[in-house]
Design brief:
homodimer; alpha/beta; 6-stranded parallel beta sheet; 5-stranded parallel beta sheet; 8 helices; 30% helix; globular
Amino acid sequence: MKPLLFTLFSDGSLLENISKKLDTNITPITLHQFPDEETYIKIDADLKNQDCVIFDSLDRPNNKLLPLIFLAETLRDLGARQVGLVAPYLSYMRQDKRFHPGEGITSKYFSNLLSNYFNWLITVDPHLHRVKSLTEIYSIPTTVVHAIDNISNWIKRHVDKPLLIGPDIESKQWVEQIANNIQVPCLILEKIRYSDHEVEISAPEIERYKTYTPILVDDIISTAKTMIETVKQLNKLNTQPPICIGIHAIFAANAYDELFKAGVSDIVTCNTIFHPSNKIDLADVILNELKHYLKWKEIP
Amino acid sequence: MKPLLFTLFSDGSLLENISKKLDTNITPITLHQFPDEETYIKIDADLKNQDCVIFDSLDRPNNKLLPLIFLAETLRDLGARQVGLVAPYLSYMRQDKRFHPGEGITSKYFSNLLSNYFNWLITVDPHLHRVKSLTEIYSIPTTVVHAIDNISNWIKRHVDKPLLIGPDIESKQWVEQIANNIQVPCLILEKIRYSDHEVEISAPEIERYKTYTPILVDDIISTAKTMIETVKQLNKLNTQPPICIGIHAIFAANAYDELFKAGVSDIVTCNTIFHPSNKIDLADVILNELKHYLKWKEIP
């Protein structure tokens, strides 16, 4: 029996590609908002003993959570055997401790809430810092999918002479792994901070790579401030116009335009959050993990 | 020890009046939205063993729920002894059964969710139909506060010769009780439906009350369609311009303006949802019920 696929908010290529690979349609949901802004939900499908998978990225999460809970409850109410969540982007990963007295640890509250409604969770490269693994905060089985191989392959296929750039020491491990994957050079920049507003980047070796295309990589592009700053510094060093790669295309406010204006040649993201910059498809790596939960033999 | 009062979204007179009567300040909350639209919450107060009461109406509910859950979790995390919710307007009361196959019973899902996070719930005249009591859907203690005496008193004090009008048979019990409270006449209109769009109202007795001010009362004014229709029918019968009274001032889209345009002399609501039409204060009746939960002797 094939799994049933659902989405409330996704309209990008990721779910489309996964449904094609599974050779199964996305089950339609009737979602309606009443004039008083309450949500109505209806599903016209036989759900008895079905394995249900909801695909929805949890960027801009506050408005999405209640409809998502309603969907999970409705599926279970109508007889679903399991309801899993594929959230290619998982939110509320930052506030995982009380940095100052009185703060709410939203990361914990959010994971407790999701754990109440889903049998399992798959996500792509969540923003893990102090929490080393999702199992520390989620009480349901969780799987982390990594985008690094798909990013490496995209660079290999589309960039002639790439020079991987890590904007700071935090990005080192990440950027070095990609560079290693595809056997290209890699530089980790060093920030020299003169004051709150004056930062300069030291990159003595960059002289050797004047003909290379710098590739900046980060997990989340939200305000894009770090990337914009790095691009400006690279401009000063007279490099080729860089390409910026992000896994999760949040792009808060006008971050996308600002990043282009800073002088990049391209902005490329994975298709975890629907955005015009989505160029790296993660359907294959997500599907690989989905198999384990569905135990469906015919999955390609 | 006095209870601590909190609110995330309320900015009307109700909580202000309650806090005055309790002679206690509203405890401030730092609520911040990050550029990626995640919520940050911080409370600078000693919460150890405190009784905490959150005041927030749940109209336009989807965007409010996650911050509300975060607030309840934070209070409990910081040591609160109990966290109660006063939701003067309670949403998701309509879909309390599966009218058509496949529908989600949002009323049940919503009450289960709230029951997970609060010790008790107080609300004002919820929209009860098939569900006769909140105890059928809430697993926590609940209290329903009634606005009928406060509405009756407002009419008595502000309208010279009121004629209570029930727009249909559903409103009968409600409208008759108010009329009875203040000893004024009362008419229940009868709808004669000629087609989907043609409705006429039969009210033979209305001739006797040409000098009276018709008062229309309903629990929720959302699209105001029923009220607007009734006002138009009264206009045809050449009554005095009516006054419309609602408990809960939802006013979807431009319903407020449309209702005024239909030819009413005033629109008056209780202060359960902040709105310019709020003229009937419910602080006293809510406070009466609050006492039971707080067991605080000094409450007036």
